[in-house]
Amino acid sequence: MFMKTRSPELLSISLETLKEHRLLRTSLWRHVCDSRPLVILSVPLIYACLVPFLLLDLSVAIYQFVCFPIYRIPKVRRRDYLIFDRGRLAYLNAIEKVGCVYCSYANGLLAYVAEIAARTEQHFCPIKHAHPLAQPHSRYVLFLPYGDAHAYRAQSEEIARSYGDVAPRSKRLRDTHAA
Q1: pLDDT of residue 4
Q2: In terms of residue numbers, what domain contains 58?
Q3: Interval 102-130 mean pLDDT
């Protein structure tokens, strides 16, 4: 069904599968007619969130650009989080493609922001919470136990500099291919 391209990260769809996918695409008219009225009425509210997302994106980009070099925190690569591949799927109509691109942006942006916040927290306050988190971030395993003042004073500076596992992606790829 799928054929690998030169890049292992990208997939190329065979011509036969592409034709099948196009046949499975729902027309715009059918898509709108099959939607409940409240679903259609909620669309402006969903897409109104784009404005705060764009502002958040800009704010975080400026924050990371200015502050991370000052504190020697490795920058988070935006392109590792914002991936827009589903908009190319032939079985999606235009409305579904726009929805997929929007959701890719919103969820990718929030994951990107969460990683920036995680690295910031690691630098400034690497202490676990007293209560378990529903979904701890990527840096949380490095944090010190809640209430352990001796560990904090002895290890917080070292943890604030412990970013060896987040080497730039290009370096990780070189290291992986060399092994």
Answers
A1: 37
A2: 2-178
A3: 97
